[in-house]
Amino acid sequence: MISMQGKRGLVMGVANERSIAWGIARALDAAGAQLAFTYQGEQLKKRVQPLVAGLGKGERLFEADVTDDASMDAAFAGLKETWGSIDFLVHAIAYSDKAEISGRFSDTTRGNFLNSLNISCYSFIDVARRAAEMMPEGGTILTLTYQGSQKVIPFYNVMGVAKAALESATRYLANDLGPQGIRVNALSPGPMRTLAGAAVGGARRTFKHTETNAPLRANATLEAVGGTAVWLCSGAGCCTTGEVVHIDGGYHIIGMPQPEALPK
Ligand code: NAD
Predict the structure, then answer these.
(1) Distance from the CA of 178 to the center of ligand 1, in angstroms?
(2) Closest ligand 1 atom, CA of 119?
(3) 203: Cβ below 6 Å to ligand 1?
(4) Residue of 39, 156, 172, 251 with catalytic role
(5) Could you tell me if the CB of 19 is within 6 A of ligand 1?
(6) pLDDT exceeding 90 applies to what percent of the chain?
(7) CA dist list (Å): 40 to 43, 85, 110
(8) Over the stretch 113-146, which tens digit does the pLDDT of each residue have?
(9) Rounded to an integer, what distance in angstroms lies between the CA atom of residue 19 and that of residue 144?
(10) How far is CA 244 from CA 144, 177, 261, in A?
(11) Strand bridging mode 139-144 / 88-91
(12) Is the CATH number of domain 8-250 1.10.10.10?
């Protein structure tokens, strides 16, 4: 098993026990890492605090809304005061108005476009810069993307555009931060049953379709995403940067439905 003993990092985006960020946190914790967390607001603090308390390694908790510079300044100042430096950061944050991820992409409003891109993409650039300032010895920065960035997934709509921008930002950040020994990668799980996942129109059908047609005939699990995050955050992933790493049972390589899924 890969050891993350002596490593410290920040996990952003836990909303509940089904959050991808929580799956990643559990895996990093099991590998020995010490974790700090951010939560979006008081409402979510009630859910996140008991989860984090169960880890029992002196975890830290900070409020952070990525659309609010003052809140981000306070969270990172608190983290710096507590630990001085970190070794990794996980960004598992995205948002679109639910009404615009169930209809036609061409109906995307300017307001939701800007808000979705701000929360789902710009926030990653912002946190990567803040995290890099706390990584004097190098480190790893991860974000979460989805294949709807590259191919049309019905109803994913503006989130697909946001994820395309996020994957591009991952490459630009990897190039900027590489000379400091900081690796920047995106994990791309297939559909998962989370709050954000369930908000996308047709979520159940997408989940079933992916499971039926992926080469491994399986969907991603929190454990699979967590294991991949541990690999990338550890020395084992030391020469990988600017990548989009799929954790989707291989679904993204498929060009048409499997024979058993086609009409007879
Ligand atoms: P989730 O709902 O558990 O997590 C989304 C998180 O984003 C929440 O913790 C929420 O508080 C946070 N967030 C939203 N707006 C914020 C803001 N203004 N400030 C701070 N935090 C904010 O759902 P999830 O599926 O675990 O999503 C995590 C990431 O994984 C997202 O980037 C999502 O797009 C990505 N992803 C999800 C799936 C899926 O099918 N669920 C697949 C691939 C990628």
Answers:
(1) 26
(2) 18
(3) no
(4) 156
(5) yes
(6) 98
(7) 8, 22, 24
(8) 999 999 999 999 999 999 999 999 999 999 999 9
(9) 11
(10) 9, 17, 28
(11) parallel
(12) no
Q: Identify whether 146 is a catalytic site residue.
A: yes
Structure-model confidence comparison of residues 264 and 255, the more confident one: 255
Cβ–ligand 1 contact at 15 (below 6 Å) = yes
What interface predicted TM-score (ipTM) does this complex get? 0.99
138: tokens are 């190098």
Return the half-sphere exposure (C-beta side, CA atoms, 13 A cut-off) of residue 183: 21
Residue 166 CA to ligand 1 center (angstroms) comes to 13
Cα(222)–Cα(201) distance, integer angstroms: 22
The pLDDT score that the predictor gives to residue 56 is: 86
Q: In this predicted model, what pLDDT tens digit does every residue of 166-217 receive, in sequence order?
A: 999 999 999 999 999 999 999 999 999 999 999 999 999 999 999 999 999 9
- Every domain of the chain and the residues it spans: 8-250
